[in-house]
Protein backbone atom coordinates (compact mmCIF):
# COMPACT_ATOMS: atom_id res chain seq x y z
CA UNK A 1 0.00 0.00 0.00
CA UNK A 2 1.44 3.38 -1.04
CA UNK A 3 1.76 5.98 1.74
CA UNK A 4 1.08 9.62 0.87
CA UNK A 5 3.23 12.34 2.45
CA UNK A 6 1.83 15.85 2.86
CA UNK A 7 4.33 18.72 2.73
CA UNK A 8 3.20 22.19 3.82
CA UNK A 9 5.11 25.40 3.13
CA UNK A 10 4.31 28.76 4.74
CA UNK A 11 5.06 32.03 2.91
CA UNK A 12 4.36 35.71 3.56
CA UNK A 13 3.71 36.49 -0.11
CA UNK A 14 0.64 35.17 -1.95
CA UNK A 15 2.43 35.80 -5.23
CA UNK A 16 5.31 33.58 -4.10
CA UNK A 17 2.90 30.73 -3.38
CA UNK A 18 1.41 30.88 -6.89
CA UNK A 19 4.89 31.00 -8.44
CA UNK A 20 6.03 27.97 -6.45
CA UNK A 21 2.89 26.06 -7.47
CA UNK A 22 3.97 26.48 -11.09
CA UNK A 23 7.56 25.61 -10.20
CA UNK A 24 6.49 22.30 -8.67
CA UNK A 25 5.53 21.10 -12.14
CA UNK A 26 9.23 21.14 -13.02
CA UNK A 27 9.79 18.77 -10.08
CA UNK A 28 7.33 16.25 -11.46
CA UNK A 29 4.41 17.11 -9.17
CA UNK A 30 1.01 17.07 -10.84
CA UNK A 31 -1.15 20.17 -10.39
CA UNK A 32 -3.94 18.06 -8.90
CA UNK A 33 -1.62 17.16 -6.01
CA UNK A 34 -0.94 20.80 -5.09
CA UNK A 35 -3.33 23.14 -3.24
CA UNK A 36 -2.84 26.72 -2.09
CA UNK A 37 -4.64 28.33 0.82
CA UNK A 38 -4.10 32.05 1.25
CA UNK A 39 -5.46 34.63 3.65
CA UNK A 40 -7.18 36.30 0.71
CA UNK A 41 -8.83 33.08 -0.52
CA UNK A 42 -10.18 32.28 2.96
CA UNK A 43 -11.41 35.81 3.54
CA UNK A 44 -13.17 35.81 0.16
CA UNK A 45 -14.44 32.22 0.44
CA UNK A 46 -12.41 31.06 -2.57
CA UNK A 47 -10.25 28.43 -0.89
CA UNK A 48 -10.04 25.01 -2.63
CA UNK A 49 -12.08 23.22 0.05
CA UNK A 50 -14.79 25.87 0.56
CA UNK A 51 -14.13 26.18 4.29
CA UNK A 52 -14.11 29.98 4.16
CA UNK A 53 -17.59 30.34 2.68
CA UNK A 54 -19.49 30.00 5.94
CA UNK A 55 -17.47 32.81 7.55
CA UNK A 56 -17.53 31.04 10.93
CA UNK A 57 -14.76 29.04 12.61
CA UNK A 58 -12.77 29.25 9.39
CA UNK A 59 -9.37 28.60 10.98
CA UNK A 60 -10.75 25.67 12.99
CA UNK A 61 -12.02 24.10 9.78
CA UNK A 62 -8.62 24.68 8.20
CA UNK A 63 -7.04 22.76 11.08
CA UNK A 64 -9.44 19.85 10.49
CA UNK A 65 -8.65 19.84 6.77
CA UNK A 66 -4.88 19.83 7.36
CA UNK A 67 -5.14 17.07 9.96
CA UNK A 68 -7.22 14.95 7.55
CA UNK A 69 -4.29 15.18 5.13
CA UNK A 70 -1.81 13.87 7.67
CA UNK A 71 -0.43 17.14 9.09
CA UNK A 72 0.35 16.74 12.83
CA UNK A 73 -2.19 18.49 15.05
CA UNK A 74 0.28 21.00 16.56
CA UNK A 75 1.62 22.03 13.16
CA UNK A 76 -1.89 22.22 11.70
CA UNK A 77 -2.96 24.72 14.40
CA UNK A 78 0.06 26.94 13.86
CA UNK A 79 -0.30 26.86 10.07
CA UNK A 80 -3.92 27.91 10.53
CA UNK A 81 -2.85 30.69 12.92
CA UNK A 82 -0.34 31.91 10.34
CA UNK A 83 -3.04 32.05 7.64
CA UNK A 84 -5.36 33.87 10.05
CA UNK A 85 -2.68 36.57 10.37
CA UNK A 86 -2.18 36.95 6.62
CA UNK A 87 0.02 33.96 5.76
CA UNK A 88 -0.20 31.74 2.72
CA UNK A 89 0.15 27.95 2.46
CA UNK A 90 1.11 25.59 -0.31
CA UNK A 91 0.13 21.96 0.36
CA UNK A 92 1.79 19.24 -1.70
CA UNK A 93 1.00 15.52 -1.59
CA UNK A 94 3.56 12.98 -2.84
CA UNK A 95 3.71 9.20 -2.59
CA UNK A 96 7.47 8.73 -2.79
CA UNK A 97 9.86 9.34 0.13
CA UNK A 98 12.73 10.52 -2.03
CA UNK A 99 10.38 12.87 -3.88
CA UNK A 100 9.10 14.19 -0.55
CA UNK A 101 12.66 15.07 0.51
CA UNK A 102 13.23 16.81 -2.82
CA UNK A 103 10.07 18.90 -2.50
CA UNK A 104 10.86 19.82 1.12
CA UNK A 105 14.31 21.05 0.08
CA UNK A 106 12.76 23.01 -2.79
CA UNK A 107 10.35 24.82 -0.47
CA UNK A 108 13.16 25.61 1.98
CA UNK A 109 15.15 27.15 -0.86
CA UNK A 110 12.19 29.39 -1.69
CA UNK A 111 12.54 31.30 1.61
CA UNK A 112 9.69 29.53 3.39
CA UNK A 113 8.77 30.87 6.84
CA UNK A 114 10.09 28.97 9.85
CA UNK A 115 7.10 28.26 12.13
CA UNK A 116 9.07 28.26 15.39
CA UNK A 117 10.62 31.67 14.64
CA UNK A 118 7.28 33.12 13.60
CA UNK A 119 5.65 31.75 16.79
CA UNK A 120 8.14 33.77 18.88
CA UNK A 121 7.14 36.92 16.97
CA UNK A 122 3.48 36.24 17.78
CA UNK A 123 4.28 35.83 21.48
CA UNK A 124 5.73 39.33 21.55
CA UNK A 125 2.15 40.60 21.23
CA UNK A 126 0.60 38.18 23.72
CA UNK A 127 -0.06 35.05 21.66
CA UNK A 128 -0.54 32.09 24.03
CA UNK A 129 -1.84 29.42 21.70
CA UNK A 130 -4.25 28.68 18.91
CA UNK A 131 -7.82 29.88 19.41
CA UNK A 132 -10.26 28.02 17.12
CA UNK A 133 -12.87 30.77 17.59
CA UNK A 134 -10.62 33.66 16.56
CA UNK A 135 -11.65 35.54 13.43
CA UNK A 136 -9.45 36.12 10.41
CA UNK A 137 -7.48 39.37 10.50
CA UNK A 138 -8.89 42.14 8.35
CA UNK A 139 -6.76 43.87 5.72
CA UNK A 140 -5.54 46.61 8.07
CA UNK A 141 -4.56 44.08 10.74
CA UNK A 142 -2.67 42.02 8.13
CA UNK A 143 -0.74 45.13 7.01
CA UNK A 144 0.10 45.99 10.62
CA UNK A 145 1.27 42.41 11.28
CA UNK A 146 3.50 42.40 8.21
CA UNK A 147 4.96 45.78 9.08
CA UNK A 148 5.64 44.63 12.63
CA UNK A 149 7.35 41.41 11.61
CA UNK A 150 9.06 42.43 8.40
CA UNK A 151 9.27 46.18 8.72
CA UNK A 152 10.81 46.82 12.14
CA UNK A 153 14.13 45.24 12.90
CA UNK A 154 13.61 42.15 10.77
CA UNK A 155 14.54 42.90 7.20
CA UNK A 156 13.35 40.36 4.67
CA UNK A 157 16.16 39.30 2.41
CA UNK A 158 15.91 37.41 -0.85
CA UNK A 159 19.08 36.49 -2.61
CA UNK A 160 19.33 36.57 -6.39
CA UNK A 161 22.02 34.31 -7.80
CA UNK A 162 23.17 32.82 -11.04
CA UNK A 163 25.75 30.31 -12.16
CA UNK A 164 28.55 31.24 -14.52
CA UNK A 165 29.66 28.42 -16.79
CA UNK A 166 33.36 28.64 -17.50
CA UNK A 167 34.69 26.22 -20.07
CA UNK A 168 38.42 25.56 -19.75
CA UNK A 169 40.65 22.62 -20.46
CA UNK A 170 42.96 20.35 -18.53
CA UNK A 171 45.48 17.73 -19.46
CA UNK A 172 44.33 14.18 -18.78
CA UNK A 173 46.07 10.90 -19.59
CA UNK A 174 44.09 9.02 -22.22
CA UNK A 175 46.49 6.15 -22.95
CA UNK A 176 49.95 5.73 -24.38
CA UNK A 177 52.49 3.40 -25.96
CA UNK A 178 55.20 1.39 -24.25
CA UNK A 179 57.99 -0.09 -26.42
CA UNK A 180 59.97 -2.89 -24.75
CA UNK A 181 63.00 -4.55 -26.36
CA UNK A 182 63.79 -8.14 -25.41
CA UNK A 183 66.37 -10.67 -26.65
CA UNK A 184 65.41 -14.08 -27.93
CA UNK A 185 67.52 -16.83 -29.47
CA UNK A 186 66.83 -18.88 -32.53
CA UNK A 187 68.87 -21.89 -33.76
CA UNK A 188 71.05 -21.41 -36.84
CA UNK A 189 72.43 -24.46 -38.75
CA UNK A 190 75.00 -24.32 -41.53
CA UNK A 191 77.39 -26.90 -43.09
CA UNK A 192 81.15 -26.15 -43.31
CA UNK A 193 83.85 -28.32 -45.07
CA UNK A 194 86.87 -28.94 -42.80
CA UNK A 195 90.34 -30.33 -43.64
CA UNK A 196 92.45 -32.41 -41.26
CA UNK A 197 96.15 -33.62 -41.48
CA UNK A 198 97.27 -36.93 -40.00
CA UNK A 199 100.97 -37.93 -39.62
CA UNK A 200 101.74 -41.33 -41.07
CA UNK A 201 104.81 -43.55 -40.96
CA UNK A 202 105.19 -45.95 -43.82
CA UNK A 203 107.87 -48.67 -43.68
CA UNK A 204 109.51 -49.88 -46.85
CA UNK A 205 112.09 -52.76 -46.90
CA UNK A 206 115.25 -52.07 -48.92
CA UNK A 207 118.53 -53.79 -49.37
CA UNK A 208 121.24 -51.55 -50.75
CA UNK A 209 124.78 -50.63 -49.70
CA UNK A 210 125.74 -47.33 -48.13
CA UNK A 211 127.60 -45.19 -50.50
CA UNK A 212 130.43 -42.92 -49.60
CA UNK A 213 131.18 -41.93 -46.11
CA UNK A 214 127.59 -41.20 -45.12
CA UNK A 215 127.13 -41.84 -41.48
CA UNK A 216 123.96 -43.70 -41.15
CA UNK A 217 124.43 -44.29 -37.52
CA UNK A 218 124.22 -40.70 -36.34
CA UNK A 219 121.11 -39.65 -34.37
CA UNK A 220 118.43 -37.95 -36.38
CA UNK A 221 114.96 -36.62 -35.61
CA UNK A 222 112.21 -35.93 -38.11
CA UNK A 223 109.17 -34.05 -36.87
CA UNK A 224 105.95 -33.89 -38.83
CA UNK A 225 103.16 -31.62 -37.45
CA UNK A 226 99.54 -32.37 -38.06
CA UNK A 227 97.03 -29.60 -38.82
CA UNK A 228 93.29 -29.61 -38.91
CA UNK A 229 90.58 -27.05 -39.65
CA UNK A 230 87.99 -26.42 -37.03
CA UNK A 231 84.82 -24.35 -37.31
CA UNK A 232 85.02 -20.78 -36.07
CA UNK A 233 81.77 -18.91 -35.39
CA UNK A 234 81.80 -15.17 -35.57
CA UNK A 235 78.77 -13.03 -34.86
CA UNK A 236 78.19 -9.63 -36.31
CA UNK A 237 75.38 -7.50 -34.98
CA UNK A 238 73.47 -5.67 -37.63
CA UNK A 239 70.65 -3.18 -37.08
CA UNK A 240 67.75 -4.06 -39.29
CA UNK A 241 65.04 -1.64 -38.06
CA UNK A 242 64.74 1.45 -35.89
CA UNK A 243 61.58 2.38 -34.02
CA UNK A 244 61.17 6.10 -33.40
CA UNK A 245 58.91 6.51 -30.33
CA UNK A 246 57.34 9.93 -29.98
CA UNK A 247 53.95 11.73 -29.91
CA UNK A 248 51.86 13.31 -32.58
CA UNK A 249 49.75 16.30 -31.48
CA UNK A 250 46.25 16.58 -32.87
CA UNK A 251 43.94 19.47 -32.04
CA UNK A 252 40.18 19.57 -32.38
CA UNK A 253 37.28 21.72 -31.21
CA UNK A 254 34.46 20.44 -29.01
CA UNK A 255 31.15 22.17 -28.33
CA UNK A 256 30.35 22.01 -24.61
CA UNK A 257 26.67 22.09 -23.67
CA UNK A 258 25.84 22.74 -20.02
CA UNK A 259 23.06 24.34 -18.03
CA UNK A 260 23.48 27.35 -15.76
CA UNK A 261 21.01 28.03 -13.01
CA UNK A 262 19.83 31.43 -11.91
CA UNK A 263 17.19 32.58 -9.51
CA UNK A 264 14.35 34.83 -10.53
CA UNK A 265 12.80 37.23 -8.07
CA UNK A 266 9.15 38.18 -8.29
CA UNK A 267 8.41 41.53 -6.66
CA UNK A 268 5.03 41.84 -4.98
CA UNK A 269 3.63 45.25 -5.70
CA UNK A 270 2.25 47.37 -2.89
CA UNK A 271 -0.99 48.22 -4.70
CA UNK A 272 -3.05 45.34 -3.32
CA UNK A 273 -6.61 46.49 -2.78
CA UNK A 274 -6.14 49.83 -4.60
CA UNK A 275 -9.21 50.92 -6.57
CA UNK A 276 -9.12 51.41 -10.32
CA UNK A 277 -9.40 55.15 -9.73
CA UNK A 278 -5.96 55.12 -8.15
CA UNK A 279 -4.44 52.31 -10.24
CA UNK A 280 -1.34 52.86 -12.32
CA UNK A 281 -3.21 53.01 -15.61
CA UNK A 282 -5.16 56.01 -14.36
CA UNK A 283 -1.90 57.98 -14.03
CA UNK A 284 0.05 56.72 -17.01
CA UNK A 285 -0.73 59.61 -19.34
CA UNK A 286 0.63 62.03 -16.68
CA UNK A 287 3.77 59.95 -16.34
CA UNK A 288 4.32 59.87 -20.10
CA UNK A 289 3.93 63.64 -20.30
CA UNK A 290 6.40 64.09 -17.44
CA UNK A 291 8.86 61.75 -19.20
CA UNK A 292 8.58 63.73 -22.41
CA UNK A 293 9.29 67.06 -20.71
CA UNK A 294 11.97 65.89 -18.26
CA UNK A 295 13.75 63.03 -19.99
CA UNK A 296 13.02 63.50 -23.69
CA UNK A 297 16.50 64.92 -24.28
CA UNK A 298 18.18 61.82 -22.83
CA UNK A 299 17.24 59.72 -25.85
CA UNK A 300 15.76 57.02 -23.58
CA UNK A 301 12.12 56.15 -24.21
CA UNK A 302 9.34 55.88 -21.66
CA UNK A 303 9.85 52.13 -21.08
CA UNK A 304 13.28 52.89 -19.59
CA UNK A 305 11.73 55.03 -16.82
CA UNK A 306 8.43 53.18 -16.46
CA UNK A 307 9.63 50.89 -13.59
CA UNK A 308 10.53 53.98 -11.52
CA UNK A 309 7.13 55.60 -12.14
CA UNK A 310 5.46 52.33 -11.14
CA UNK A 311 7.57 52.06 -8.00
CA UNK A 312 6.81 55.62 -6.90
CA UNK A 313 3.11 55.13 -7.64
CA UNK A 314 3.02 51.87 -5.63
CA UNK A 315 4.55 53.55 -2.58
CA UNK A 316 2.24 56.54 -3.00
CA UNK A 317 -1.02 54.55 -2.97
CA UNK A 318 0.04 51.88 -0.44
CA UNK A 319 -1.87 51.92 2.84
CA UNK A 320 1.31 50.65 4.47
CA UNK A 321 2.95 54.05 4.00
CA UNK A 322 -0.08 56.23 4.52
CA UNK A 323 0.85 59.47 6.34
CA UNK A 324 4.57 59.26 5.50
CA UNK A 325 6.18 61.74 3.10
CA UNK A 326 8.54 61.05 0.22
CA UNK A 327 11.74 62.26 1.93
CA UNK A 328 11.00 59.97 4.83
CA UNK A 329 10.31 57.00 2.54
CA UNK A 330 13.06 57.50 -0.03
CA UNK A 331 15.68 55.28 1.75
CA UNK A 332 13.15 52.41 1.89
CA UNK A 333 12.16 52.97 -1.73
CA UNK A 334 15.80 53.08 -2.84
CA UNK A 335 16.58 49.75 -1.09
CA UNK A 336 13.50 48.08 -2.53
CA UNK A 337 14.12 49.45 -6.04
CA UNK A 338 17.76 48.36 -6.10
CA UNK A 339 16.88 44.88 -4.82
CA UNK A 340 14.78 44.50 -7.96
CA UNK A 341 16.84 46.41 -10.53
CA UNK A 342 20.39 46.20 -9.22
CA UNK A 343 22.59 48.27 -6.94
CA UNK A 344 23.14 51.89 -7.99
CA UNK A 345 20.16 52.04 -10.37
CA UNK A 346 17.92 54.27 -8.26
CA UNK A 347 19.93 57.51 -8.55
CA UNK A 348 19.31 57.82 -12.31
CA UNK A 349 15.57 57.20 -11.88
CA UNK A 350 14.95 59.07 -8.65
CA UNK A 351 13.05 61.99 -10.25
CA UNK A 352 10.67 59.61 -12.03
CA UNK A 353 10.03 57.65 -8.80
CA UNK A 354 9.40 60.85 -6.86
CA UNK A 355 7.00 62.17 -9.49
CA UNK A 356 5.14 58.84 -9.45
CA UNK A 357 4.85 59.00 -5.66
CA UNK A 358 3.75 62.62 -5.39
CA UNK A 359 1.28 62.38 -8.27
CA UNK A 360 -0.40 59.36 -6.64
CA UNK A 361 -0.56 61.20 -3.32
CA UNK A 362 -2.11 64.35 -4.86
CA UNK A 363 -4.83 62.29 -6.57
CA UNK A 364 -5.63 60.48 -3.32
CA UNK A 365 -6.08 63.76 -1.47
CA UNK A 366 -8.25 65.26 -4.17
TrEMBL record:
Biased composition range(s): Basic and acidic residues: 338-353
InterPro entries associated with the record: DUF2382 (IPR019060), Stress_Response_Assoc (IPR052967)
Region annotated Disordered, chain positions: 338-366
Residue ranges annotated for the DUF2382 domain, each copy included: 161-267
Protein name: DUF2382 domain-containing protein
Species the sequence originates in: Persicimonas caeni
Amino acid sequence: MTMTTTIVGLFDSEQTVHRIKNGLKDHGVSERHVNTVTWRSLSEGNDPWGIGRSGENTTAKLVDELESRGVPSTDAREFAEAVRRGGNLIITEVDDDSKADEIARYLDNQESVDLSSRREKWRETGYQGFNPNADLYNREQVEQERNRILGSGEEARITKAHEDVRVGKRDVETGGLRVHKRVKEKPVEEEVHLREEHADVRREKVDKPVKGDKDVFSEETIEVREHAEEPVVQKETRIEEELHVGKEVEEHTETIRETARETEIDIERLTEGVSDKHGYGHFESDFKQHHKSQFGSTGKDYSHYEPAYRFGHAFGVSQRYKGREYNDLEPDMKRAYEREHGEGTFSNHRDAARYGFETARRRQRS
